[in-house]
Amino acid sequence: MKPIIITAYTNDAHIYDMFKIESAMRHLPKWFKDLSKTYPTTVGNQGRPINLPVSTMKNCPAIIDYLSRPLAVRIPYDLVLRCDDGEMAWSAPSQRIVDLVVEFNKTQKEGFDIGHCKAGVGWELVEPEGIPFLFTDAYYNNFSKDWRVTQGITNFRDQHHLAINISTPINQEQTQIDAGQPICYLMPLSERPVKVVSKLVSPEEYKHIAEKGNKKFTFIDKWKKNRKLKKFLGVP
């Protein structure tokens, strides 16, 4: 089966060396790695015990499929979050990183009563076919955490910038996400396998790729208008 090819661009050598976007199977949580595939139980008739193996979660087809298909996105920096009355506060090891995070304010999400921010992770992704990908929480890595990744669907033909929407409860105490933590899965809405080609490029080329896929030429409905213009002009 022909693979889906994603080219991942960054201009940050540290991100390129340490935080590539890879199969989620390479970043399984420790508890899952340590879990046995079976556990013993005793079943028998008329009081005659027979030792039998019983499957654990590690043999569940639904969980295995869920973990084997997506790409894992890891946050490339420490990020501290707090939500006060629906407004987010955050900090990171440098101002450059702090500026990668953008808040959705109360007016933008009225009725969606959580703290909500969008965190850039230093990658621009290009996939020419327009295959849809589901952003989904890396749940089995983070089930006990007090933050979640907000779900959505995108493609990397019309949108190249990779930013992760993170939500926290209102008036939540300060929480920290550590560098290297898988925070999000990119699940292809296709049966085809996915191959990621990572490239370290100059700041100028990175900016060109970012602006090409995220040109701010209109106030609203940027994606819809951009696709319509491309179709009219015959631009891939």
Can you describe what's shown?
This protein is α+β, with helices and mostly antiparallel strands and 236 residues long. Among the domains are: 70-198, Deoxyuridine 5'-Triphosphate Nucleotidohydrolase, Chain A (Distorted Sandwich), CATH 2.70.40; 202-236, no CATH class. The protein has helices spanning 13-18, 30-34, 61-68, 95-98, 139-142, 203-213, 222-233, and strands at 4-10, 22-23, 38-43, 50-55, 71-74, 79-84, 87-91, 101-103, 115-126, 133-137, 148-149, 152-154, 161-168, 175-177, 182-188, 194-200. The strands form four sheets. Strands 1, 8, 9, 11, 13 and 16 form a six-stranded mixed beta sheet that branches. Strands 2-5-15-10-12 form a five-stranded antiparallel beta sheet. A three-stranded antiparallel beta sheet has the order 7-6-14. A hairpin with a 2-residue loop joins strand 6 (79-84) and strand 7.
In short:
The protein is an alpha+beta fold. Among the domains are: 70-198, Deoxyuridine 5'-Triphosphate Nucleotidohydrolase, Chain A, CATH 2.70.40; 202-236, no CATH class. 21% of the residues lie in helices and 36% in strands.
Detail the topology: elements first, then pairings.
Elements lengths: L3 E7 L2 H6 L3 E2 L6 H5 L3 E6 L6 E6 L5 H8 L2 E4 L4 E6 L2 E5 L3 H4 L2 E3 L11 E12 L6 E5 L1 H4 L5 E2 L2 E3 L6 E8 L6 E3 L4 E7 L5 E7 L2 H11 L8 H12 L3
